[in-house]
Each structure stands twice: as structure tokens, then as C-alpha cells.
Design brief:
Shape: globular
CATH topology of the largest domain: Rossmann fold
CATH superfamily of the largest domain: P-loop containing nucleotide triphosphate hydrolases
Helix content: 25-40%
Strand content: 15-25%
Bound molecules: adenosine-5'-diphosphate, zinc ion
Number of strands: 31
Radius of gyration: 28 Å
Largest sheet: 7 strands, parallel
Strand order of the largest sheet: 11-12-10-13-14-9-15
Distance between the termini: 59 Å
CATH architecture of the largest domain: 3-Layer(aba) Sandwich
């Protein structure tokens, strides 16, 4: 038996990607028992292999006849788990590309791409299991009928947030949930669904009251839609940048084009930045298309994710809406990719495999030979440059769909106006006038907590995190001090650590202080604070945003969570309390991010009827940056920025990679990087900067340092780094030092901290 397999000497060796941080694949022999099974080992299928003393699940990269290792040293794989590849071909190609481009171990890339259940040995096809959902009767029932049954009431509320729930979702719920569900099923308010978990059935879709009709497109919208449709009908790769001002109706453009794709029977991947945005969007899409939609984002549990992934792969789900990692969904027949708010920083994965989902999406669209649409009111400079140079087709929506003009943006000069709790008299006046006009007020401050600094009046020292080079933030609601960098939390310091004085004062504003100040001054108005502290539980953000939209609150105070793409109909005014931090930052991307943020948050004002107003508090009203801002001049700003970047050979004109290292010992991280710098052999056009401590040198007790590598050619940058990685993989000394520190390589880094 053995002979007959090995005797033939064909295709009896598997090259396997194993989920370990090693930049190589591993060879195994095809398991012997296979000759009795029908499973043929296939590229892209999972295989269980012995790895040291462990058994790991890897993925087959190649089935081959020869190994670089002596055959007698190869171990047999234990079991082939799948009869087919888990990945569609363009996705498989994209994973290889990620590994090459981001210089990430292929085993880790593949691991990141798989739902957790499949990283383990779970069956490719998820087992169907009991799922519950509200019936129409349950939906329309006034919930106060359940006042005597608090648990049933609580369950109904959960169903309102998430349409399908299974036993997994009730793990943290009170123990009587099963009886409560049974009671609700008896009442006919909840039904059990067995067949297609996590996927709305046809009957359910029919129940969703169809708002199937679409709006009449504006002429700009129809032009954009026509262009995208042409691209869809060409059946080949093309990238289009939809640059549409806030409120220009980009969503409607997406929807109209999605229709064409669905008519062809193909699937759509819609990438969005925030989980908070997906539930509403999913509902809108289902309503519009009566099509099965699956969501993919980090708040799903492992089972949900496995199911969602499966339905996309099988083609049951026609539309996949998800955040960053949904770019790894496998499709039966993908027809279009859309990246909404393509400029958003959350598309960049900041640890592990540090990919940029938008860029992966572009590569993938190319492999799949389908169009990709990138949409934003404030495109990233990278995308804008590509559109400017003609590589992407530029589609512009310069007017709002509702025919209301873009809001008027005005500056409040803080040199002339004192602030109290972060609010100038001019800002307070504007708030008052807006409220008197029955409009909502939105106040934006990108700092949560009560006060960013607690400091000693006597020795002027601020209360510091003992593990980071950073101040502790005061959180009044819970009466604690928190570090926003390492998660440390402790008691409020009543005494100074340095001089033991008890004269501690809190300085500066976070969203909580502003919330208090506003509540005090406008007690008759309902107020809603939206930041990560107020929306930390699952589903809470969606709920709070819904409250904001419905107008339940007159004043919204929030961090960047309120800036992203929301369509709140009644916001009359936006106040930006602090805009100066990004102006003089050492981070070369800070002004770009600030501009995007200001235009995005401003875009929440005056979306329906009356002209909205925006007020920005600043100490630098004469800064040229604000000329562009007040004119809503994104293009002018982008041109300024391109000149600056070109002069400095910064991205997108130059290419960066950042080698980061951290160690509990101050010297070691730097020492590692200096050695790396020495070992690297820069190719033509590659410059390696000095190894330096990170801007925040100590974080969570570790000392951090970084080495910036710049190049004017991507390939030269990539080759230099690949060569170095190869060197340290084989060099014993290098390996030893590399093992003494934690290090990571970030290609196209987004932030430099
Ligand atoms: P964007 O994402 O570009 O900021 P949205 O897609 O949220 O804009 O649309 C803004 C508002 O304009 C929404 O309330 C939407 O219903 C409305 N809208 C979009 N297109 C049209 C149209 N053709 N006619 C009327 N209203 C429209
Ligand atoms: Zn002191
Ligand atoms: Zn800390």
C-alpha cells in the first residue's frame, strides 16, 4: 500500500501554511490512510499536521512531488480536513499578495482570513442549529404588555437589536432564558428557525415592509450610476473613486449600482468603517432589495461569523456588509466591491497582519476582474492622487441630493474669547439659537473622559500612568483614573505622587465635562453623550445612534464616533470644540486626518431643509488650513498637501515601512533596531533613518523604538526588507536578539507611534 503511493512519487508531498509567526511553509507527506479515502489533498484545503508536540490546523499551499528536505525526515500529515479549497481563487491570490506585500508570514495571513471556527477543525459547513427571531406579531406588540415578565421583555429588546439569536447569544443572560423563550414562542411572538440560521428566509424578507422604491436620482447621481454600470457591464476590473460631498447621496448611488449586479445574479461586498454603522445599513439594504444580506464584523460571535462566511461562500448571501476583515470573505460569484468612507483609518489593521483593507480590496477586485468603487467626501490622498492621475475613474457629486447647500463654516477665535468648560460665549450663543429653532446641536470633541489631566497645584506635576509616558484621564462617572493607552484603571489621586500635596486640580475637557457643562446650562434639553465609554456594550452604539437620529435628544456630545457617515435629519448646527491639535503635530498625516474629520462632522449639519451652521473654536484662525476648511475646498487642500508630500517624498510620493520594537529593557529595543539598520542592505533609492525611541517611549511597561525605512520605489523597499527578513531567519545571532524583543514590520504605516 505504502509502496503504491510512494512508488509513484507524484504529488505525495504537501507544502503547508501553519499558523505560526515563521516566514516559511512546511512540508509533510500525504497521510497514508488517504489511499483508502476519497479526499484528494487540494490547494487551499485544511490539513491537520503534527508540529513539535502540538497538532495544528494548516492550509495546503502546494501539492508536489519533491521537497528540499530529505524525504525520510518528513512527517506524514494527520488528516486532510476539506475536500476543496476554502478560498475562491481571487481571494487565494490576494492572500499570497498580502504575505508578499506586507511581508507577513503566510500562515498568519491565512489564519487571519479564516473565521475562528475554521481555524480549528470545525466542519466547513456549519451545523444548523436552533435560532430564534421575532414574528410580525412580536414586532408590533406594545412591549409594556410584558411589564410583569422582565426577562421576556429583556429578550424582546435584544431581538429588536439583533434579528437572529441562538443559545450562544444567551450565554451571559439570566439562567431562565430558555423558559422565557418558550413562553414567547407560545404567545406567537417569537418563532424558531431551523433551516437557514443567520440568513433571513424568504418569508421573513417578505415581512420586512418593503420600501423597495428608490428615490429619483439627481442628475449627478445618475451620471455616477451610469459610469459604474458601464464598468459592471464591461465585466472587468476597474477602479472608480466616488468623490461626493457630505449629503450628496452616495448611498443611493451604491444601491442603484448594486441592483445591476444583483440582476446579473452576482454578489456584492460592501466594506464600511464602523460596526456601529452596519445594523442600520443592513436593514436598509434588506428593505431595498429583499435579498439575503450577511454582516461581518468583530462583534459577531464565532458561530455567527462561521455562518456568515459560509453563506457568502455558497452564494446564499448576495450581499456581504462588513468592516475591515470582511475583505477576506470567500464568494461564489463576486460582481462588485464597494468601499464606503474609503479614507477611514479603521480599514488599516494595526496589529498582527497589518494590512490595509481598502488596498487588499483593490487587489482582489483586480484578481476577480470586477469593478471596485471607493466612496468618500474626503478621499485619502492616495486615492485622490490615483484619480487625479487617471488611474482611477473620478466620479464627482458636488451638490447635496436634498438641494440644501453645504453648511456655513465659521471660526471662533479663542484668543478673543475665554472658554469655560471648553465652551466659548460665541459657541454657547450659537447653541442657544439652534435649540430655539428646534434643531439638534452636535458638539464634537475627540477626547473622552472628564478631564485629560489631573495635576498638582504645588509642584505642577500631572498624575501619570505608572506604565506609560502619558497622563491619566479623569473619569467622573465612575470616579476613576484611566490610562487610554494601556487600559490601566485606578482610584482618583487625592494626593500628588511627587510632593504629597492634596491640592489636585483637573484641567482640560473631555466629553463628560462638556456633557455636564451643557446639562447645567441647558437643563430643559435632552442630551446624549456618544463615545466609547457610553457605548461599550454590544449593540449599544447602534441603539444610541438610533436615539440620535430619531431626535430623542436635542444635544449630542461625542467623539469621532458621531462624525462617521450618519444621516441625522435634524442637526442644525455642529460645534467643533477643539481643532488645533492636528495643526502642529509631528505626524505628517495629522492635518489630512483633521481636515477629513472636520468636513465629515460638518457634513452632519443641515442635511434636510435649512442651511446648517458649523462653528470651530481655534487659536489659529489665520492658519491657511482654515481658508480651505471654511470654503469646503477639499480639492484645494488635497493639492496643497500633495505639493508638501511631493517635496518631502512622503507618501503617496514615497513609500514607508516602519520597523517597531518593544522590550521591558530600555536599551534592548533600540539595540535591536540599530543592529537591523546595520544588517539591512538598502537597494537603490532606499533610505534607512536612525533608530529612535517612539514618540511615546513607554507604553504598558514596555520601552518602544522604531526604525523608518523610506524608498521612492515600492519594489526596492520590499526587496530590502525581504532580504533582511531572510537574513535574520537564518542567522543565529540575529535570531537570538530578535527573540529578545517583540518586533513588527508595518508596510504603509498609518500612524507613527
Ligand atoms: P452621503 O452618504 O453622500 O453623505 P446619504 O447617502 O446619506 O449621503 O444621503 C443624504 C440624504 O439625501 C439621505 O437622507 C438620502 O435619503 C437623501 N437622498 C439621497 N439621494 C436623494 C435623491 N436622489 N433625492 C432626494 N433625496 C436623496
Ligand atoms: Zn505635587
Ligand atoms: Zn498606561
Amino acid at each position: 500500500m505504502t509502496l503504491s503511493i510512494f512508488g509513484a512519487r507524484t504529488n505525495h508531498i504537501l507544502s503547508v501554511a501553519v499558523p505560526v509567526p515563521l516566514r516559511q511553509s512546511f512540508d509533510f507527506l500525504v497521510p497514508i490512510e488517504l489511499s483508502q479515502q476519497s479526499i484528494e489533498p487540494m490547494v487551499g484545503a485544511r490539513v491537520k499536521v503534527p508540529f513539535g508536540s502540538r497538532k495544528l490546523v494548516g492550509v495546503i499551499l502546494e501539492v508536489k512531488s519533491e521537497s528540499d528536505f530529505p524525504e525520510e525526515k518528513l512527517k506524514p500529515a494527520l488528516e486532510v480536513l476539506d475536500a476543496q479549497s476554502l478560498f475562491d481563487a481571487p481571494l487565494w491570490e490576494s492572500l499570497q499578495w498580502i504575505s508578499r506585500y506586507y511581508l507577513a508570514p503566510i500562515g498568519e495571513v491565512i489564519d487571519a482570513a479564516l473565521p475562528v471556527a475554521l481555524r480549528q477543525a470545525a466542519n466547513l459547513m456549519p451545523s444548523s442549529k436552533k435560532t430564534w427571531s421575532l414574528t410580525e406579531q412580536g414586532r408590533s406588540r406594545p412591549v409594556d404588555e410584558l411589564n410583569r415578565a422582565p426577562l421576556q421583555l429583556a429578550l424582546i429588546k435584544r431581538f429588536m437589536q439583533q434579528r437572529f439569536l441562538s443559545a450562544d447569544d444567551f450565554k451571559d443572560t439570566a439562567s431562565g432564558w430558555r423558559q422565557a423563550i418558550t413562553a414567547l414562542v407560545k404567545k406567537g411572538w417569537v418563532e424558531e428557525i431551523e433551516a437557514e440560521p443567520y440568513l433571513p428566509t424568504r418569508e421573513l424578507l417578505a415581512q420586512i415592509d418593503g420600501q423597495a422604491s428608490s428615490l429619483t436620482l439627481t442628475s449627478q447621481q445618475s451620471e455616477a450610476v451610469d459610469s459604474i454600470r458601464e464598468a459592471i457591464n464591461r465585466d472587468q476590473f476597474s477602479s472608480l473613486l466616488l468623490h461626493g460631498v457630505t449629503g450628496s447621496g452616495k448611498t443611493e448611488v451604491y444601491f442603484s449600482t448594486m441592483e445591476s449586479v444583483l440582476q446579473k445574479g452576482q454578489q456584492i461586498l460592501l466594506l464600511v468603517p464602523e460596526i456601529g454603522l452596519t445594523p442600520q445599513l443592513v436593514e436598509r439594504v434588506e428593505r431595498r432589495f429583499s435579498q439575503a444580506v450577511v454582516q461581518m464584523h468583530s462583534a459577531l460571535n464565532d458561530t455567527e461569523r462561521h455562518h456568515a462566511w459560509w453563506h457568502a461562500r455558497e452564494g446564499n448571501a448576495k450581499i456581504v456588509i462588513g468592516t475591515r476583515s470582511s475583505v477576506f470573505s470567500s464568494f461564489a460569484d463576486l460582481g462588485l466591491i464597494i468601499v464606503d468612507e474609503e479614507h477611514d483609518g479603521s480599514f488599516k489593521q494595526q496589529d498582527g497582519v497589518r494590512y490595509q483593507a481598502r488596498d487588499v480590496a483593490i487587489y482582489r477586485a483586480k484578481q476577480a476582474d470586477v469593478p471596485i468603487v471607493l466612496g468618500s467626501a474626503t478621499p485619502s490622498l492616495e486615492s485622490y492622487m490615483n484619480a487625479d492621475s487617471g488611474r482611477y475613474q473620478l466620479l464627482r457629486l458636488s451638490e447635496r441630493a436634498t438641494k440644501v447647500n453645504l453648511p456655513k463654516i465659521e471660526l471662533i477665535d479663542l484668543n478673543m474669547q475665554p472658554t469655560n468648560d471648553g465652551l466659548s460665549p460665541a459657541m454657547l450663543e450659537a447653541i442657544k439659537a439652534t435649540l430655539a429653532n428646534d434643531k439638534q446641536v452636535m458638539l464634537f470633541l475627540n477626547r473622552r473622559g472628564y478631564a485629560p489631566v489631573l495635576y498638582c497645584k504645588d509642584c505642577k506635576q500631572a498624575a501619570k500612568c505608572h506604565r506609560c509616558d502619558s497622563n491619566l484621564t479623569l473619569h467622573r462617572r465612575v470616579n476613576r483614573m484611566r490610562c487610554h493607552h494601556c487600559g490601566y484603571e485606578g482610584q482618583i489621586k487625592l494626593k500628588c505622587d511627587s510632593c504629597h500635596s492634596t491640592e489636585m486640580v483637573d484641567v482640560g475637557e473631555g466629553t463628560q465635562r462638556v456633557e455636564d457643562a451643557i446639562a447645567l446650562r441647558f437643563p430643559e434639553h435632552a442630551l446624549l453623550r456618544i463615545d466609547r465609554d457610553s457605548t461599550s456594550r454590544k449593540g449599544e452604539l447602534a441603539q444610541v445612534l438610533e436615539q440620535a437620529r430619531s431626535g430623542a435628544a436635542d444635544i449630542l456630545v461625542g467623539t469621532q464616533l458621531i462624525t462617521k457617515g450618519h444621516d441625522f435629519p435634524n442637526v442644525g448646527m455642529v460645534g467643533i470644540l477643539e481643532a488645533d491639535q492636528g495643526l502642529y503635530s509631528t505626524d505628517f498625516r495629522a492635518s489630512e486626518a483633521l481636515f477629513q474629520q472636520i468636513l465629515q462632522v460638518s457634513g452632519r449639519a443641515g442635511r434636510r431643509d435649512e442651511l446648517g451652521r458649523v462653528f470651530i473654536q481655534t487659536r489659529f484662525p489665520e492658519h491657511p488650513f482654515f481658508d480651505r476648511v471654511t470654503q469646503h475646498d477639499f480639492i484645494g487642500f488635497a493639492k496643497d498637501l500633495m505639493q508638501e508630500r511631493q517635496a518631502a517624498s512622503f507618501p503617496p510620493f514615497g513609500f514607508f515601512a516602519l520597523l517597531r520594537a518593544e522590550s521591558p529593557h530600555q536599551a534592548q529595543a533600540l539595540q535591536f533596531l540599530r543592529k537591523a539598520r546595520h544588517e539591512m542592505q538598502p537597494q537603490d533609492g532606499v533610505r534607512i533613518m536612525d533608530a529612535v525611541p517612539a514618540p511615546m517611549e513607554r507604553r504598558a511597561g514596555k520601552f518602544r523604538a522604531q526604525l523608518l525605512i523610506c524608498a521612492n520605489q515600492r519594489s526596492a523597499l520590499n526587496n530590502t526588507l525581504a532580504q533582511w527578513l531572510h537574513l535574520i531567519a537564518v542567522d543565529k545571532d540575529a535570531k537570538k536578539l530578535a527573540n529578545s524583543v517583540r518586533w513588527s514590520l508595518d508596510v504603509d504605516p498609518l500612524d507613527h507611534y
